[in-house]
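Not sure how to ask, but would you mind making up any protein sequence you like and the tokens describing how it folds?
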Amino acid sequence: MMRFPLLFLAAGLVSCAPLPPLVTDPPSETPAENSQKKIASADSLSKDSAASVPFVAVAPAVAPKDSSVSDSSNFKPVEPAPVLSSTPKNIPTMALAAELSRDFRVGIQVGVSKTEISGKNYRIAFHENDDGSEKSGALKISANGSRVSAGSDKADSVWIFPGESSRISVDGKEYRGKILVVNSAKKLNVINILPIEDYLKGVVPNEIGKLDASMFEALKVQAVAARTYAYHHFNSRISLGFDVFATVQDQVYNGCASEAELPSAAIDSTAGIVLTNNGEFIEAYYHSTCGGYTDGVEVWGLAPVSYLKSQSDMKNTDSAWCSASSYSSWKKVYSEKELVTMFKKNFKAAKASGNSDFSKIQQIEVQSEFPGRRVNQLEVLTDKGIFTANGDRIRQLFKEGSKILPSSKFKIEKNGKVWVLDGSGFGHGIGMCQMGARARAKAGQSFQEILQAYYPGTSLQCVHSEQ
């Protein structure tokens, strides 16, 4: 198969390159339908840094895969679309603060009792600056009281450095960069330490899909959003020893396993580009499918944010940009018995207010909506009075197994003996609509146009380290 010719564009497309290295030595719906994040994942918000946010399972626990998402196993790039030349020529640079001029730390395993490191050639040390000893093959590491056991050795932490032109595997999954294993509450936290640009190569394909060249601008949009999210969340998990989780609690990161040529080209061609507002990295939330209208962080009970506000995402009067998504419209049907069981079980998680000791549901009404048409307050009349649930937490009220409601944008009515929800959207609805971004890219919009559509009033800047 011919190799895709886009990789050579990295240096030429972005005017802020060449730059000094972004980092020095060490100190974020899975395709769109699977990413509610973002972030994150996003359905994802996180988090320590967003502790006040009600429910953010960030970037979503894996949701059903949309049929429109490219299958990475058969990915065959097509010829570049003309819009590839739309990268702006002059983006202002922004010096990174000293604390950000280091490699990124990703918690790839958290709270495990053991792990296995393997590789053809690596070095193990018990302090970052130690020479350590050369190893190859497999090395079992386990928690031993408050210490870390690596083979016959015990230490407070274990560093694993890859050999030249080599990578390290953790439980069979390969990663760029180095690995740090620390003991936290008598369990292991396994941390991947690497440059942000390398981290993104394991994020972008998981969050928006690998796509084809007709949607290259959407891959660039995702790269900028994910990079911004990463910089915004430096030290957000500092109590655990890293910056972000590798799961939907932040951005879905899968090491080298998900890397592909076209997403990596999109990352390279936007190297260092981030979104800012008043000189600060924005909170670049994104989700899978907005259903025609986005909403603001008010759905989480937070104060309004100027660049994360509700707005129309309609292509025309009859069609949303994300209409290709299988979640552009959806329906749920429940019997009263199912709802009683579901509501009682999920009452606490949904932070519902009222009496949860009921056995019958007499009426369910949407009392108010947010500007983007997601439900603000849901009122349920039972045989023991009224209880209410609010905002994005309402999705938790309808949780079945591990799956919450696709979105809080729905209408509900009783039809005979059953309750019917007619809804649209997948995810929290804040920030970028990934399925909309894909369609906009395919229609010829540039990545900067798409970013402005979802993060209005923000600025593009290109970060660099002064070290």
Q: What stands out?
A: Confidence is low (pLDDT under 50) at residues 1-15, 17-87. The chain has three domains: 1-102+202-325+426-467, 104-194, 330-423. The chain is about 15% helix and 30% strand.
